């Protein structure tokens, strides 16, 4: 079951996020800030997936106009005004439930919400080193196109100062694939 993320889900989202992405990926303060970036015009673009009363996935998405590009973004290559682009921050599904379409359902829910917020496209930085490069494959299957690869995207960032990558440890050298999904 897909439903809108609310603060009552925060503890489970933090737990799953840190389990899948590495310790320090999310905490209460960072999640509260991410959550607020997803709300615009009283529409929430953040979602969770539950099965049998257990949180099995989540998607965090910034509403168009609620985020700023940074050195990891290449807006000149998008061909779309930044203010009309949402940011797909994170899509996470617990391992036993991967491959069952949950990520796609979470993405569809966020696209629907961000369209109502005024988005015509979404940008994301996909984790190239995800198991079997599943993040990039999933986003490509959804219709996204690769804009640019960014090595060392999550290394010593202000966004995740205590992040411990599940592959690299504290000195993360994973690559982010900046991908653009234009909505139909």
From TrEMBL:
Pfam families: Acetyltransf_1. Coiled coil: none annotated. Residues 1-163 form the N-acetyltransferase domain. Keywords: Transferase. It comes from Shewanella psychrophila. This is Acetyltransferase (GNAT) family protein. GO terms for molecular function: acyltransferase activity, transferring groups other than amino-acyl groups.
């Amino acid at each position: 079951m897909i439903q809108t993320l609310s603060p009552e889900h925060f503890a489970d989202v933090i737990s799953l996020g840190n389990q899948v992405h590495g310790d320090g990926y999310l905490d209460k303060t960072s999640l509260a800030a991410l959550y607020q970036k997803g709300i615009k015009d009283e529409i929430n673009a953040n979602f969770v997936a539950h099965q049998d009363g257990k949180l099995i996935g989540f998607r965090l998405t910034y509403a168009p106009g609620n985020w700023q590009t940074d050195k990891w973004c290449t807006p000149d290559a998008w061909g779309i005004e930044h203010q009309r682009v949402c940011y797909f921050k994170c899509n996470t599904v617990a391992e036993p439930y991967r491959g069952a379409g949950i990520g796609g359902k979470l993405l569809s829910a966020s696209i629907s919400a961000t369209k109502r917020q005024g988005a015509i496209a979404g940008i994301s930085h996909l984790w190239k080193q995800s198991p079997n490069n599943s993040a990039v494959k999933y986003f490509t299957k959804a219709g996204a196109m690769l804009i640019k690869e960014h090595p060392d995207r999550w290394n010593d960032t202000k966004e995740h100062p205590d992040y411990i990558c599940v592959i690299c440890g504290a000195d993360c050298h994973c690559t982010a694939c900046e991908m653009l999904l234009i909505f139909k």
